Amino acid sequence: MTHFAAVLLFALFASTVFGITQRETPLRMVRYGVYCFVLFVGAAIALSWLMFFIAR
Amino acid sequence: MATEENKIVAARPAAKSGAQPGTQSGSQQGFVYLPLIAGWLVPGAGHFLLRKWGRGALLAASIVGMFTMGIVMQGKLHSNPHDILDILSLAGDLGNGLLYVFSRVLSLGADQVQVTTADYGTRFIVVAGLLNVIAAVDAHNLRTGRKS
Predict the structure, then answer these.
(1) What is the value of ipTM here, to two decimals?
(2) Does the beta-carbon distance from A13 to B55 stay under 8 Å?
(3) Residue B55: is it exposed, middle or buried by C-beta count within 10 angstroms (0-12/13-18/19+)?
């Protein structure tokens, strides 16, 4: 398993739980879950590029 | 003499309990902490008890999936903590409820973290436990009527 695949799995599982537990209606659950997933993956990619440039 | 202040004091207990006529008896039926405890022991069970089948199934799939991925990645199951970080990790692991107990009994998980993915696996297991606690508390909130 690649590191990025691990990130995607982590984001998927955590976002699902966050969406269900933090919102009340199904539509808002889905929207919040997608929002969390994008933030998880986006933050991982942004921090990865930051560390890449710091290491150079 | 019923002054305005006395009326307010008399009305305070009902307002403080937050109970509305007709809803109090329903919320007191059965053991109110059962979904919390069941949800902690078995991921999703708290929601299943409340007949929230879809939410329970998704929560169970996510938490069990995350825990399983952690075990598959040779993550470490904490048992005898030596420092504060180990204690916190053990607390997270214990959030998995019976998954943690069965994994310990079956000797699943690594004793030592030797590869990079095992470190990820250890975090997966801890976070799965923390997510399970969130799910169990959500089931409790559904049971008490704090959440619909």
Answers:
(1) 0.90
(2) no
(3) buried
